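Incident review: delayed structure delivery

Summary: a single-chain prediction request sat in the queue longer than the usual turnaround. Root cause was a stuck worker, restarted by the on-call engineer. No data loss occurred. The affected request and its eventual output are reproduced below so the record is complete for anyone auditing the incident later.

Affected input:
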Amino acid sequence: MMKKMIRTLTVILVSALGVVMPIQSNAVNCFAKGNEAVSLMSCEVEKTNDYIRTSLENMPGLTKSNYGTEYDPAAVITNRSYSMYSGVGKQTYLLDGDFTRLTGTIYVPEESRGVENKSGIVQIYGDDILLYEMLGMSGKDKAVDFDINIYSAERLTVRIYGGWYRGDGTGLIPMNCVTNLELRKDGDDSMTWEEFSKDQPIYLSNLEYWSKDRLFDTYTFNNELIEDNFGNVYSADRVFNAETGGDEATIEYFLDGKYTELSGTMYVPKTNRGVDSIAFNAHFAVYGDGELLYTSDGLTGKERPLDFTVDITGVEFLEIRLAGKQGKGDGVYEPFNCVANLAVR
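Output delivered after worker restart:
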């Protein structure tokens, strides 16, 4: 039986007499007959931000790929960054748990053809859990088609970031676009969302922090920090870094004892791969309720990324500490080491 999805929106108005007047308005969400595909763009948008762009009419340089494939402007999503220090474009759609599969295509737009820039991020989240991501597509990469199970998620969020300056005053050019996002009901339904989600990592960068030192960053807009000394690329929205000297920068999260494990990766940014010594006082540490649970000195330029796992069973307040910077000359400093993909389970 086809499921009819009607959402009731209550708008509160105040009349000239000061009377509060609720007005009911119906918004029809996306639905499908049988297993037919439905465009994600037809679904109700729950929330969006200023850094997402979904209307690309008269923008052929973005709606055509670097290899000449043309896409429907109405079906393309990309980011609208005003500078290298702008945020990630995010748009969340309401699905009501009615679909199990999502397909789509990620491509490099024609305007970014030949640009060697690995800052591009395309991510699909279901109810705040990462379901799919593509990182680091640059100017010579061909389009990538994806087909993922979304396990009847209630909400689906598209996140997109990354760009470059052409230098002619036209602003930041997106590195990646995503198109032809289609929902279906014929995905694997052998596992419920509750069963799937219970063992999935929750990234700290997606949680609200309790307190944070002003020098601690949970996101990097510096494209040179997202690639390590061995060429691995990390999602910019999951790179923790601190531009400090000998002092520590800290961030703290309230976990309420809900998790048992913290995992992540410590690495040397590509720009520091020629450094043979550890910067003064460079280190990384994890504290749980004031007790030291894990620590590591900084890594030198020839050391490989360090994956780690920490037991945080019963921890209510989790604190992350980072220290160390590397001078680049002319008074410019960058983080000596970074930590990526910090997640709890």
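Verification: The CA atoms of residues 58 and 235 lie 30 Å apart.
Action items: add queue-age alerting; document worker restart procedure.
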